[in-house]
Amino acid sequence: MYGLSHDKLPRHLAVIMDGNGRWAQERMLKRIIGHQKGVETVRVIVEECSRLGIKYLTLFAFSAENWLRPKTEVKALMSLLKKYIRVETARMIDSNIRFNVIGARQELPPDVNQAVQEAIDRTARNTGMVLTLALSYGARQEILMAAERIAADLSSGRLSSGDIDEKTFSSYLFTSGMPDPDFLIRTSGEMRISNFLLWQLAYTELYFTEVNWPEFTAKELHRALHDYQSRERRFGRTSAQLQNRS
Fold first, then answer.
1. Which residues are recorded as binding Mg(2+) (predicted)?
2. Rounded distance, CA 139 to CA 120, Å?
3. Which of 230, 175, 188 is nearest to 205 (CA)?
4. Fewer CB atoms inside 10 Å of the end CB: C or N, the chain?
5. Helix or strand (DSSP H, E) at 83
């Protein structure tokens, strides 16, 4: 599809899955129906990314700010999340996908946290794609947490000021051990980052589509990836410098 070059796929793809509620409202449906439909899209995109050979897929599933939504919607989302994780764990095992979560997990309901931990444990030995859900996640909160931990280690003597560089700082983030995203997709036409992976997205290619998440198909994914492969990633260098390095 779209003549994708497998050697030019992003190693790490991040997605802001937006538009579930909008999709439902356009059809005069309850918002939770949109979220349920969005879960079906998650399954399709996870399977396609795994099939293509993408190594890391990170999905923004529930933000730190989403706790401010109506309690009935939050409760329904947590129930849907628990169901998804439990149903999909066997599928992840069969597909050699390793499950991971970033965010303030302590804020999740105990039963959801239990389902998360079980999925992490059961897929820990898988060697294929790493599927990460960002749950109760906020990038500013993550950066503040990292700064607090660094300050504590400086105070205790476990770390010296000369040790602090970008690599060290990154090791204090939720995403420690993961490469920064090469490509970010956001659906539903919104053109902002919304407090997602602010540190990690410094050199990430961004892609915005009008398509709502419930209608984001494997075909739409291929279209986005084709756009990514048409770009030149310079990381501050000139095109001539890149050509001389190749």
1. 18, 205
2. 22
3. 230
4. C
5. helix 71-94
Beta strands across the sheet bearing 205-208? 98-102, 130-137, 56-63, 12-16, 183-186, 205-208
- What is the pLDDT at residue 244? 65
Q: 134 burial class (0-12, 13-18, 19+ CB within 10 angstroms)?
A: buried
Q: Quick check: helix, strand or coil at residue 59?
A: strand
Output the pLDDT for position 2: 59
Q: Are 141 and 64 in contact (CB under 8 A)?
A: yes
Cα separation, 92 vs 198, in Å, equals 28
Annotated binding residues for substrate: 19-23, 31, 35, 63-65, 67, 69, 186, 192-194
Cα(216)–Cα(209) distance, rounded to whole angstroms? 9
> Could you tell me the end-to-end alpha-carbon distance of the chain, in angstroms, rounded to an integer?
27
Which class for 121: exposed (0-12), middle (13-18), buried (19 or more C-beta within 10 A)? exposed
Enumerate the active-site residues.
18, 66
Q: How many CB atoms lie within 10 A of CB 28?
A: 6
Nearest residue to 173 (alpha-carbon basis) of 142, 204, 203, 141? 142
pLDDT single digits (tens) 99-121? 999 999 999 999 999 999 999 99
What are the residue ranges of helices labelled H in 157-235?
166-170, 218-229
pLDDT tens track for 216-245: 999 999 999 999 999 987 656 655 555 666
Residue 233: per-residue pLDDT: 77
